[in-house]
Write a structure and sequence with these properties.
The complex is a heterodimer.
Chain A lengths: L1 H35 L4 H5 L8 H32 L4 H15 L2 H15 L6 H25 L3 H9 L4 H12 L1 H17 L2 H7 L16 H11 L3 H35 L1
Helix pairs in contact in A: 1-12, 3-6, 3-9, 4-6, 5-6, 5-10, 6-9, 6-10, 7-8, 9-12, 11-12
Chain B lengths: L1 H61 L1 H5 L4 E2 L4 E2 L2 H32 L2 H16 L2 H20 L6 H11 L1 H13 L3 H9 L4 H12 L1 H17 L2 H6 L17 H8 L5 H32 L1
Antiparallel strand pairs in B: 1-2
Classes of the chains: A mainly alpha, B mainly alpha.
């Protein structure tokens, strides 16, 4: 009886694991199989009205670059402050609490805030800049947490060695701590890119959805995920929606694999020392 | 002799100058890093502040009871009651937990205790990928695959609370799996060895010893999953039907709190727009409630 119960429970656990795997394969395979046949050069690189993805790709890249320019230095510096400088106390507790809150706020609330603060009050209008500023706040927690973890893994003997040789604290951070945690920093940036590519609600409310190649960061632009939402919601063309979803999934897949490959590469490189 | 002393003095003052220069640089750098860290605080204050500043006056004007417990949402007639959406959001979240937690928890056990190593190295990246799929892709998949299936069985057009629950149930899986697996792996080996040495089977050990020990970590995973379900917008928007009516069952069309904001924000003005911000305030209240309970649980654990 006991054995029967055990193998029954083990069976259920295997099935649950199988279901999780099957769901992923189902979603990815379904989208890719239906989408790849719709992909062609004209669609990928075309730039005619409502046809071709070039405006969406450029808008997406625009927002990613702008958001990283804004958030990466802030996030990395915040993490350095929290790990290297901060003395535990009220201020640090407030900072940590804020970061936790930022991580748990739904993206639609970011959208509301961006709409009122960047689009209206600061008169940036529906623009790539408004969108980038909004998502740059959204990715701050990811960057800070990941970089913090990386900084914590740097052995304190490295810092002591550098300080002992007479280097100042800032010199130690720039020349010793940051180079030793570069893999965590890169990982945090790749994760952020993934998050921005997948973001829809906040960008829809701040960057708008004009499907033209943007000429400046004050132009409105439609990112790939907003484009997919638009195609699916309005039921304009499921073929194009499939193709767009395929592009999105492929980029996400590549980003995901590259973080893993990068981590492995760093591990190998460090192993050589 | 005198010359030497003077020289020494000069050298000394030169040294202190360098030293104080360095100190000034250090101080400036430190302040810069601190300012960067404070951006998060400022952002948080601004976001909460603006949502409240735009939303609270609307709640005041509509009346708290009329707003939160009002059964009708008719912006054209200036009737703003969001109770159906609150109920829809709660139903959808409970449903997602019912669907997602058993599968997620069992998968976490599978990864942490049961599966052979080679399989773990395959399924872990798959879970990560599940977390990385954009929500709009989940929504699109639901629209094109789940809705027709529901429609073919129930003939209701497909858009329904059921569809929302299924999609959200899948979307919260990675959160629950990753955090639960982490909590299970963190249970000290001695617990496991002790139980096995006493003659318990592996399954008994998992359910009677490991899971109770990992309880608070698992609970934290579930709460984070709930947070994701409550806040999800785009995926829900594509499969919910978005009718602002009281949900009557699994098959009725629903509009969630997030959906309410997303559907109408693009054209709302005046009190209508403020009512949407007020919807955001209610959403905020839910998230804060979740965060507080999460803090409570993690504090209890440590």
């Amino acid at each position: 009886m006991r054995r029967f119960k055990d193998s029954f429970a083990t069976g259920i656990i295997w099935i649950a694991g199988g279901i999780t795997g099957a769901i992923l394969i189902w979603i990815v395979a379904y989208v890719l199989i239906n989408g790849i046949s719709e992909l062609n050069v004209e669609f990928l690189f075309g730039n005619s009205e409502e046809d071709g993805l070039i405006p969406m790709i450029i808008s997406t890249v625009y927002i990613i670059v702008l958001a990283l320019i804004i958030a990466a230095p802030l996030g990395i510096m915040s993490a350095i402050y929290l790990v290297e400088y901060a003395i535990q106390g009220r201020l640090v507790r407030i900072i940590r609490f804020s970061i936790e809150c930022l991580a748990s706020i739904p993206s639609i609330i970011y959208g509301l805030f961006g709409l009122i603060f960047f689009v209206n009050i600061n008169r940036m209008g529906f623009s790539l800049l408004s969108g980038a500023l909004t998502v740059s706040i959204m990715i701050l927690p990811t960057i800070i947490r990941t970089v913090e973890e990386a900084l914590k893994t740097v052995p304190s003997s490295f810092r002591e060695g550098s300080l002992g040789l007479g280097a100042t604290k800032i010199r130690t951070i720039v020349k010793v701590v940051i180079p030793s945690s570069i893999s965590g920093i890169v990982t945090s940036l790749i994760l952020s890119i993934g998050r921005i590519i997948g973001e829809t609600a906040a960008i829809l409310l701040t960057a708008g959805m004009v499907a033209r190649v943007p000429t400046s960061m004050m132009d409105s632009g439609r990112t790939l995920s907003v484009h997919l939402y638009y195609l699916a919601k309005e039921g304009i063309s499921f073929e194009k929606a499939f193709a767009t979803a395929t592009v999105l999934l492929t980029v996400v897949l590549i980003l995901n694999l590259s973080t893993k490959a990068f981590a492995k590469w760093v591990e190998k490189k460090n192993g050589l020392y | 002799m005198e010359k030497l002393i003077v020289q020494k003095k000069v050298r000394y003052s030169h040294k202190t100058a360098v030293k104080s220069n360095r100190l000034v640089v250090e101080k400036i750098v430190r302040t810069l890093f601190l300012l960067a860290a404070i951006t998060s605080v400022v952002s948080m204050v601004l976001i909460a502040g603006f949502t409240l500043a735009k939303g609270l006056p609307a709640i005041n004007e509509i009346g708290f009871m009329n707003f939160v417990f009002g059964m009708k949402w008719k912006p054209g007639a200036k009737i703003f009651g969001i109770f159906p959406m609150i109920v829809a959001s709660i139903y959808a979240t409970i449903g997602a937990v019912v669907v997602g937690v058993p599968i997620g928890l069992l998968t976490a056990i599978f990864i942490a205790e049961i599966a052979p190593k080679w399989l773990v190295s395959i399924i872990t990246p798959m879970v990560d990928l599940l977390a990385a799929i954009p929500s709009v892709v989940y929504g699109f998949f639901g629209l094109i695959v789940i809705l027709p299936k529901i429609d073919s069985v129930f003939r209701n057009g497909g858009n329904s609370l059921l569809a929302v629950i299924l999609i959200l149930g899948v979307m919260i899986l990675p959160t629950i799996i990753n955090i639960s697996a982490y909590a299970i792996k963190a249970v000290p080996n001695e617990y496991k060895e002790g139980s096995l040495a006493l003659g318990a089977t592996k399954i008994q050990t998992i359910f009677k010893v490991i899971l109770p020990a990992a309880k608070s970590g698992i609970l934290a995973g579930v709460i984070l999953g709930i947070g994701r379900a409550v806040g999800e917008t785009m995926a829900v928007l594509l499969v919910a039907g978005n009718a602002a009516i009281m949900p009557t069952g699994l098959l009725s069309r629903v509009r969630t709190l997030t959906g309410n904001i997303a559907v109408e924000m693009s054209y709302a003005t005046g009190l209508h727009q403020e009512a949407l911000f007020a919807t955001g305030v209610v959403l905020f209240a839910f998230i804060i409630l979740l965060n507080v309970s999460l803090r409570f649980i993690t504090r209890e654990a440590s």
